[in-house]
Amino acid sequence: MARKADPNKRHDILQAACRVFALKGYAPARMIEVAEAASVGKGTIYEYFRSKEELFFAVFEEMMGQAGEAIAETAAALDGPFALRMRKLSDSIIQSWLGQLDMYALVMEFWSATATSPSRDRFKTIFQSGYRQLRRIVGDLIQAAQTAGEVPAENDAESVASALIGTWDALLLQAWLDPQFDALGTSRSFMDVVLRGLGAAPIDA
Amino acid sequence: MARKADPNKRHDILQAACRVFALKGYAPARMIEVAEAASVGKGTIYEYFRSKEELFFAVFEEMMGQAGEAIAETAAALDGPFALRMRKLSDSIIQSWLGQLDMYALVMEFWSATATSPSRDRFKTIFQSGYRQLRRIVGDLIQAAQTAGEVPAENDAESVASALIGTWDALLLQAWLDPQFDALGTSRSFMDVVLRGLGAAPIDA
Amino acid sequence: MARKADPNKRHDILQAACRVFALKGYAPARMIEVAEAASVGKGTIYEYFRSKEELFFAVFEEMMGQAGEAIAETAAALDGPFALRMRKLSDSIIQSWLGQLDMYALVMEFWSATATSPSRDRFKTIFQSGYRQLRRIVGDLIQAAQTAGEVPAENDAESVASALIGTWDALLLQAWLDPQFDALGTSRSFMDVVLRGLGAAPIDA
Amino acid sequence: MARKADPNKRHDILQAACRVFALKGYAPARMIEVAEAASVGKGTIYEYFRSKEELFFAVFEEMMGQAGEAIAETAAALDGPFALRMRKLSDSIIQSWLGQLDMYALVMEFWSATATSPSRDRFKTIFQSGYRQLRRIVGDLIQAAQTAGEVPAENDAESVASALIGTWDALLLQAWLDPQFDALGTSRSFMDVVLRGLGAAPIDA
DNA sequence: CATGAATGAGGCTTCATTCAT
DNA sequence: GATGAATGAAGCCTCATTCAT
Nearest nt to B6, CA vs C1'? Predict the structure, then answer.
């Protein structure tokens, strides 16, 4: 990824591409639309990105990186009893995405690219490492609670972590599908069940 | 009379399109590939489907319809105590999709179409009704157990249903992303937690 | 022109083709439209006509033949003084076409085919012989009057005939272009001038 | 700045399209042929014209505009007695078209488009205004002569104008149909008759 | 560096024609 | 003979990419 002179311009283009890809999808998006959205000439994009595909991947990397950082920061700031920490993490993830639900279309495009893009492997790798990171954060949270004796150790922390991540993902998907859907409320109700299943002390008791 | 219309031809084309779209994705898929996969002429596709878009939507409808039927059948055949019924349903869904994991790429194309296709609304409608159906099946299962006193009524059946469905979805996604991922095992571990959280009697006790 | 068994069906198809070609033009007309207009199967057309081109040419031949016959009949029935005969012929031609002005679109298609069709020569030949026939009829009318001493012989009957034919043609064109245009009145006014120019006694004197 | 837009390119394409449409006709003409004739890439045409249809219409507009201008100029330069002015106008029109008789095929395509093109109305409008302009020029010429007492006022100038225009049109058509046909001689003979009919003093007397 | 005019590969789709029934 | 399902050649047009300015 040869970065050219003006890093601002690169970033502008990335931002513009993000909006355009989110709105139209990868294949239907036109390079000219990205150029116009970034207020640059069509040729300028190619000064910063080798191709449409490359641009899309760069958007993907950027977005995943930011999402990962945001979660890592949130996780690092967690405190209080186990159930509360889990609730906070869950709420934070759900809420941050609810605040930019229109970006979910973009996530779908990323998944699609992971399935069928000529460079699907790059997409796959990033997605996998993202999942791995998230799984580790959640898994560590549970294991720490198990080690600390806050919850019994009988459950497989890894599995629960994987499943919870999936649940968040999917609740956001349903929210995106149906604006009426109460993703936050549903996630809280469900987290209560899961936490009880894990043997955690209820939050308010 | 002319060459009698082969009543299977529409279905053959649909099958072929399913394979091609799954393999290449909607936009990169070529009509000629579908034609060749179906062993028909390029023009023949247009005897049965107005356009590429229409063909894709038909594949979507067919697939969602079949998936819905399969789950409805499975749900109708459930018996035994609550925890077992849930486990059976979960296992059935996970296993049936694991058996055709390559079709998951297609599901992602459907999501992508739902986000950005010109006829996204049609996709959205089908997806929503599919989710609604599944939510009802799972929700009814839980409520029946609550009514029967098998589990306490304190939890919101609807929320748990929504979340569980999402979890299955997302576990399969992870399995598709990483062939090493044990979706079935993870789902079982997680279901144990959830069932305990719901207050259900353990399966083997 | 291999005529097949059922001459009625051939005629039906010809009629249908005439309507369709007049309405849509040669290139935009679809064989299926002709088939439907003739209430026959698409393949049936090919039992009677080798190709679309051939069908179009057959329509052309038919139409030119009928037009030629009609004019010949009219001409044969002319009587009275020269000016009256000319007026009658002129009126008859103008009126018969005004009665089927929508067919004028078809004439334009014929001209177009004469210019650019792969078999333009066949079209050209028919058109030329049609013009020749008409020129002879009108020319003979004038020459007969010259011979009979009804008008002076100083003018070139052939030239006047050619020009008059063109005038009728073009007045009908203007009528087709603009439904307000009074082709009959214009032709009468003009014929008066021409007849006076030829030295004919006025019709009403 | 990018490669500077060649201001002639639009015109070059128009010229090329003119040749190709004249030679092959609208429907059989291929965009690639136009591109090659203009020595540009296929896509370049679409930088200047939205579609094949649009290109064709542009050719039409251009041609009608030029023809109109040419006639207006000729008309403005007319002098001498009435009969001479009419003769000059007639000769000028006939001769200018005889000099580019191959363009007559294009005129026929325009007529055809006026009859059957999806945008026939645009064609119709242009044709009508062209006819109106020409009718006014010729009509004014006659009326001026009537006003000046050069010819009696008994004839309808408008009608004669309409008919004469049609006659020129149709004589050129016959010339195009048959290269042997002497359009100029015929038009002169006929003009003599018409002028005599109008009561004009003979040219050479 | 930035630009946008020019390009042409390639896709979707149409439709005249064929031919099995 | 009549039919219409099947076909594939061929065309219009799009749009990512290039490169002269």
Answer: F5
d(CA B72, CA B75): 5
In CATH terms, B1-49 corresponds, of 1.10.1040.10, 1.20.1260.10, 2.60.40.2470, 1.10.10.60, to 1.10.10.60
pLDDT confidence of residue D7: 73
Q: Tell me whether residues C196 and D195 touch, CB distance under 8 A.
A: no
Interchain proximity B170–A165, CB inside 8 Å: yes
Q: Which two tokens stand for residue B80?
A: 């035994």
Q: Does the CB of D52 fall within 7 Å of any strand F atom?
A: yes
pLDDT value, residue A203? 78
Within 8 A by CB and 6+ apart from D136, the residues are D161
Going from N- to C-terminal start, the domains of chain C cover 1-50, 60-198
Residue D99 has a CB neighbour count (10 Å cut-off) of 9
Q: Dihedral angle at the C-alpha atoms of C126, C131, C136, C137, nearest 10 degrees?
A: 100
Residue D29 contacts residue D55 (beta carbons within 8 Å): no
Distance from CA of D110 to the nearest CA of C (A): 9
Asked if pLDDT for residue A88 goes beyond 90, the answer is yes
Query: Nearest residue to F14, CA vs C1'?
Result: D43
- Selecting from 1.25.40.10, 1.10.357.10, 3.30.70.100, 2.40.160.30, what CATH number does the domain D59-198 have? 1.10.357.10
Say whether the CB atom of C28 is under 7 angstroms from strand F.
no
Interchain CB contact of D104 with C (< 8 Å): yes
Tens digit of pLDDT for each residue in C128-182? 999 999 999 999 999 999 999 999 998 999 999 999 999 999 999 999 999 999 9
For chain D, the average pLDDT equals 93
Q: Measure in Å the smallest separation between the Cα of A135 and chain B Cα atoms.
A: 11
| Mutation for testing the D interface, residue in C194, C195, C203 having most D CBs under 10 Å | C194
A96 in Cβ contact with A70 (< 8 Å) = yes
The two three-digit tokens of residue A68, written as one number: 């990962």
Is D115's CB within 8 Å of C104's CB? yes
Whole-prediction pTM: 0.92
**Type of residue numbered C36:** E
Ranges of H-type helices in chain C: 7-24, 31-37, 42-48, 52-76, 82-98, 104-116, 120-147, 157-177, 183-198
State the Cα–Cα distance between residues B168 and B160, nearest whole angstrom: 12
Coil, strand, or helix at residue C49?
Answer: coil
Q: What would you measure as the largest C-alpha separation in chain D, in angstroms?
A: 68
B137-162 tens-digit pLDDT = 999 999 999 999 999 998 899 999 99
D201 vs B37, D88, D90, D144, D164, CA distance in Å? 83, 15, 17, 15, 18
Say which of D23, D104, D167 has its CB closest to residue C170.
D167
Task: Let me know: does D56 contact D24? Beta carbons within 8 Å.
Answer: no
Phi-psi region of A173 (alpha: psi -120 to 50; beta: other; left: phi over 0): alpha
> How many Å lie between the alpha carbon of C133 and the closest alpha carbon of chain D?
13
Alpha-carbon gap, residue D17 to D59, rounded angstroms: 7
pLDDT tens per residue, range A128-145? 999 999 999 999 999 999
The answer, yes or no, to whether residue C5 has pLDDT greater than 90, is: no
From the candidate CATH numbers 3.40.50.450, 3.40.50.2000, 1.10.10.10, 1.10.357.10, the one assigned to the domain spanning C60-198: 1.10.357.10
- B102 CB inside 7 Å of strand F: no
CATH fold of the domain at C1-50: Arc Repressor Mutant, subunit A (1.10.10)
Take residue C178 and report the two structure tokens written for it. Answer: 């603009």
d(CA A23, CA C135): 69
